[in-house]
Batch of 3 targets.
Target 1
Amino acid sequence: MSPSPALPTSSAARRRRPAWLSPRVLRTEALAGLVVALALIPEAVSFSIIAGVDPRVGLFASFTMAVTIALTGGRPAMISAATGAIALVVAPLAREHGVEYLFAAVVLGGLLQILLGALGVARLMRFLPRSVMVGFVNALAILIFLAQLPYLTDVPWAVYPLFAGGLAVLVLLPRLTKAVPAPLVAIVTLTTLTVAAGMAVPTVGDEGRMPDSLPVLGIPAVPLSLETLVIIAPYALALALVGLMESLMTAKLVDDLTDTHSDKTRESWGQGVANIVTGFFGGMGGCAMIGQTMINVKSGARTRASTFLAGVFLLVLVVALGNIVALIPMAALVAVMVMVAVATFDWHSVHPATLRRMPVSETVVMLSTVGVTVATHNLAIGVGVGVLVAMVAFARRVAHLVTVDGVLDPDGTTKVYRVTGQLFFASSNDLVFQFDYAHDPGTVVIDLSDAHIWDASTVAALDAITTRYEARGTEVTITGMNTDSHQRHTALAGTLAGGH
C-alpha cells in the first residue's frame, strides 16, 4: 500500500491562505472600508443630485459597483462607485428621457467596456505622458477641494470650529498612533459632540433621504427597439470611455503608491461587469474614485476585502443605520476630504526648484491638463487636451532634431547629403529646402543611415527632392535606409500625386 500523502505544513498552508484572512490585515481592511463607506455617502447623494435622480440611485450604484469590482477588478484596494464624471455624462439622458433610459445606458456602457477591455484598450495607457498623469492627479485634488467649499459657505458658525477640530484630529492623531484610522476617529468624535451638544449644523441627512430597502434586480423598463438604442448609445459610449479612462489612470496611480502591478485588462472588463450589474439593480453607473481610493490606501488597505467591505458597510449604514448616519455632521466629512485633497496633490510638481529644472513644455502639458479639467469639471476632456498638447510639444521638439549635412567629394563630381533624425510630417516639411539644387554636381547621394522614415509625408518630400534634381539633369541615389524605412519608401515612392 502506498504511503498516504503528507499533510501540508502549517507554514505552507499560511502561504496559500489569502492575505486578508490574517486577523491583523482583516482589521485594517475592515476599518479602511468603514471609513470609505462613510465618505461615499455624501458623495453618492451629491452625484445623484448632479445626475437629476433620486439619492438612492447613487447610493445603490456605489454599493453594487464596490461589491462587484472587488470580485472582478484587476486593481486590489481600489474603490469604484458613483462618480461626478459619470453623473455629468448621464444627466442629460435622465433629464430628457427618464431614469429607466439611464439604467439601460449604464448596462450598454458596461457591455462596451467589456468589449474595449477585450480589444486591449488598457494598453493605450502607455501613451499617457507623465506630465498628463501629474496634471490628472493635481486636477483631481483641486476638484475634490472645490467640491467641499459649498459645505463651508453660508453655514452656521459652529461648522468652522468643527471643521478645524476635524483637521486637527486628522493631522495630529497619525503622529501618535496609526492603530485606528484618523478619519474614523474624526467622524465618530465630531458626530458624538454635535449630538451631545445639540448643535444645529448641516448633516448627512440634509443631503437626501436614505434608502429604507435593498436594491432590487430588474430589467430597465424601456422599449427594446432601434429608437431606444439610438437614444442611449451616445451616452453609453461616453460613459464607457470616461469610466475606463478614470479607472485605468486611478489604477496606475495606486500601482505607483503601493509599488505593485495590477492587471489593467482585467480592470477594464471588470468595470464593465460592475456597470452591467449596477444598471440591472437600478444604479446610475460609476467608475474608480480617486478620493475614496486615496482614503482606502492611506488607511493601509491593500486587498480586495476593503473594497468589498466598503460596499457592504455602505448598504448597511444607509439601510439599517440610516437614522444614525444621517446625524454625521458634514463638517467631519469635509475635513476628511480636504485632507484627501492635500494628500492627493503632487506638491513636488509645483515646487520652484522642480519648475526650474523641468522643461517648459512639460510644465505646459501639466498646467493644460489641470486648467482644462478644473474649468470643465471633466477629467476626460482635461486628459484629452493634455495628451494633445504633449503630442504637439513632442512633434515640435523632434522636428528640430533633424539635420542635413552636405559634403562634396574631392573630385567635385558627387555630393553626399547625410540626413540624421526621425523623419515624419513635422520634421520633413522643411526637408525639401535643405538641398542646393542649383549648385550641386551631376550626382547626388542622400544617405539615410542615421534617419528613419515614419510616414507618407516623408516619402512625398523625398519624391519632391528627387523631382527637382531630375529636372536639372542631376542623378539622385537614396542609400542607407533601414528595413522598415525601405519597405515604406518602396511601397509609396512615386505614387503620391503632387510630390510634396
Note: The beta strands are 80-81, 287-288, 403-408, 414-423, 443-453, 475-479.
Target 2
Amino acid sequence: MALDRSNPVPNDLSAFWMPFTANRQFKKTPRMFVSADGMYYKTADGRQVLDGTAGLWCCNAGHNRPRIVEAIRQQAGELDYAPAFQMGHPKAFELATRLRDMAPEPMEHVFFTNSGSESVETALKIAIAYQRAIGQGTRTRLIGRERGYHGVNFGGISVGGIVNNRKFFGSLLTGVDHLPHTHLPEKNAFTRGQPEHGADLADELERIVALHGPETVAAVIVEPMAGSTGVLMPPKGYLQRLREITRKHGILLIFDEVITGFGRLGSSFAAEHFDVMPDMITCAKGLTNGVIPMGAVLATREIHDAFMHGPEEAIELFHGYTYSGNPIASAAGLATLETYREEGLFERAAELAPYWEDAVHSLRDCPHVIDIRNMGLIAGIELEPIAGAPTKRAFSAFLQAYEKDVLIRTTGDIIALSPPLIIEKHHIDTLFGTLRDILKGLD
C-alpha cells in the first residue's frame, strides 16, 4: 500500500512479522524512526532520540555518514551486483585486503557473508571441513557456552546458550556441548573491566574434552565479551586458558566478534584487546556501520591453505552465499573502514572509556540495580527482576527511556548500552542522567 507522505507512519502494520519483538504490544503503540543523523534518530512525531545502542551494536560511526552514503550511491550507479561464484569484482578483494591488514596478524584470509549469523555458520562449517582436510575427520563436535549468543541459524543456536533462542526449535545440531557461563555476581558484582574471579571456569573444557575424547572435537566458539546475553566480561586469564587448552588438544578456537569488532573495546578486535589469538574471527555489524548487511570470517593461513589442494580448477570449499562480497556492501565496508581510520574512532573509544565507566557506575546507588558491568564503550546494568514477572522491569525502563528521547536496549532484566563511537561527553551525561531519573521512578 502507498505511504501517505503527510503522515510517515503506515496505517496498516499487520503484514510485517517483526523479529525479536513483542508484535502485539508494538502494533498497539508503535515506535517509529523515520531518519537519523550523527548520534540521533528522528521519530515519526518529530522528536530527536539519542542513540545509546548504535542501532543494534552496529552503527559504530554514527548515522548518515557522508563518506559511506556517497560510496553506496556511486557503487549502485556503477556496478549494482556481480556473481560471487567463479567471478569477482575489485572492491571485494580490496575490502578483504583492508580487513586482513587491520586484523590481528594470524588472520590472513577473509570469507564474506551477509550477517553475523551467517558468519557463525560459515566458521563452524569451515572448522569441521578443516579437520577433515587435515586427516582429522572424526573431529565433528562443536563446543559453545551457556548464555552464549551466536546468531539465530541452526548452527548458531545449537552452540549458543540462550534458552528462549533454543527451546522452540527442536533438537538442533547433534554433537554439541557447552561450557558454563562466566557470570558470577556473588563474586564479581560491580566490577570495572575484567572481573577477578572465574578463570578456572575455562578448565571445564578439559572435562568436556575428556568426556567425548579430544579426537572428536572440531572447535570451541565463544564471544570474547558476551553482549546479547547481558554484557558478560571474561574473567582475567579465562580466554588465555581457553587458548591453551584448545591448542593442547588440536581444537580450533573461534572468537565471535560480531559485537566486539571494529572499535567497541577501543581496538580493531577483542583478540587484540585481550591479547589472545584465535584461529578464526567472525564479524559483521560494524563492518559496514550497519548500513548494508555484510559479515565476514577471518581465518589463518593454516586453515585456508589446508583446502588449497587437488586440481586447480576444482572448488575447494562448497559453501557461499549469493551476496558474498556484494559490490554495494563492499563499497560501504571500504568507506566505513576509512571513516574509522580518518576520524580515529577506535582510539577515541579508548580515550572516552574511563569517562564512560565512571558514568555507568554512578548508577550503582539507584533502586533495583544489582550489578553493573563495563568495558570500552559497552555497559550492562542489571536490575532485580519483579517477582513472577521477569523482564518487565527492564522493558518498562526501555519504554520510559524512549519517551524521554533516549534509545536503550534490554535483554532479560539487563539494560545494555553501546553507543556510536562518535559520542561526546555531553551525550554520556544526558544518557546516564536520563537513566538515573528513570531508575529512581521504576516500580
Note: The chain has 16 helices and 15 strands.
Target 3
Amino acid sequence: MPFNTRRDSPWLALILLMAINTVGFIDRIVVNVLVEPIKGEFQLSDTQVSLMGTAFTLLNVGVALIIARYAERARRLSLIAAGTLFWSVATAACGWAVSWTQLLLARMGVGLGEAIGLPSNQSVLSDYFPPSKRGLAISILMLAPPIGAFVGFVGGGWIAQEFDWRSTFLIAAIPGLVLALLAWLFVAEPPRGRYDKVVTDEVPPMKAVLHRLFVLPSARNLVIGSSLAAMLGFGLNYFFTSLMMRQFGVGLAEAGLYSGIIASLPAAISVVGSGWLGDKLGAKNPAAYALIPAVCLIVGGPLYVFAITRESLGLLLGLISIATFLNFGYLGITYAALQNLMHPRMRVSTFAVLNVVYGVASALGPFLLGWLSDHMAASFGPAQGLSVAMAITGALYVWAGLHYLLASRHLARDVAAVAEK
C-alpha cells in the first residue's frame, strides 16, 4: 500500500469493531423476527423453525477453533475483514433461498463467516486497552447484542411487513460489506501483549487455554454461568416476537418494534453500566467482576417469570424491560474478566472456545424452548403454552447467577496467580 491509511487508534478500533460485531449480531438475530413468515411459507413447527439457530452453529463452532489457532500468529484485522465480507454475502444468500434446505445452508454460511471474522475482536481490543480499562472497552464492544437486537427486530420487522422476509436478509447484508472495507483500510494491527507483564511470541498449546478456562475455579464458573444465561437469553429472544403475536394479536412490525426496544435500550445501559462499575470496583476487589452479574441474574430471573405471565401487554412489556436490564448485565463484564485471566496469545483461542460453548448454548436455547412450547401447547394451546414455556426458561437465570457467586469466591486469587505466567 503506497499510502498507509491504518491508524494505531484504540477508539477508532473500538468503534469499527463494535460496528462489525453489531452487524454480525443483526445477521445472526434477524431471523428471530422472521420466524412467523418463514414458518408460514415453509409450513414448519416451532421445533423445525428453531433449526435455523442450529444451522448457524454447525460450522460456526468448529471452524472458529481452527481459525483462532491461526489468528494467534496471523494478522487479526485481515481475518476480521475477510470474515465480515463472507458472512454478509451469506446473509444475502438467505434472501435468495427458494427452499427450506437452501435457507438452512445459507444460515450455515453466515455461521462460517462469523467464525472467521469475530474471534479476534476481543484479542485486538485487549492489545489496545490496559486491563484497568478492558471492562468498559469490551462492554462497549458487547453493545452489539442490544443494538443489533434493536436494528434486527425493528428494522427487520418493518422491512418484512412492508416488503417481505427475503428483502430483510438482502438489506441486512449491505452494512457488513462496507465495514469489511473500512476495517481493512483504517485499523492497524496492535502489538501483541502491549499491556501484559509477560510477552512472548510462543503460542501456548490448546491444553493450556482449556486449563485456564475450565480448571481455574473462577473461569470455570464464569463460563458455566454465562453459558446458561446465553442459552436462556437466545431462547427467550427467539420467541418473544411470536409470543406477542400469538398472545395479544400484535402485528409483525409492531411486535418487532417492542422486541427491539426491550432487547436494546435496557440491555445497552446494563452492559455498559456493569462494565464501568466492574472496572471501578474491580481495581480494589476483582471479585466485583463476578458479583455484579450474580446479583443481576438472581434478581432478574424471578422477575422475568412474573413478567412473562402477565395478561396485560403494557404491564408485560414494562416488567420485561426491567428484567432485561438485569439479565443482560453479565455480557461485557464476563468477557473482560476472562480476557484478564488469559495469556496474550491465548485470547483469540479463548474467544473461539467460548464461541463453541456459547454457540451450542445459542442453538440449544431456541430448540429446547421450541420443544417445550410444542409440549405445553398440547395442554394450554399455542399462545399460553409458549408463555408457560418461557416462564420456566426464565426461572433458570437464578441457576446462572449462582455460578457467578461461586466465581466471585476465587476470582481475586486466580487473577493474581496468572499475572506472572
Note: DSSP finds 21 helices and no strands in the chain.
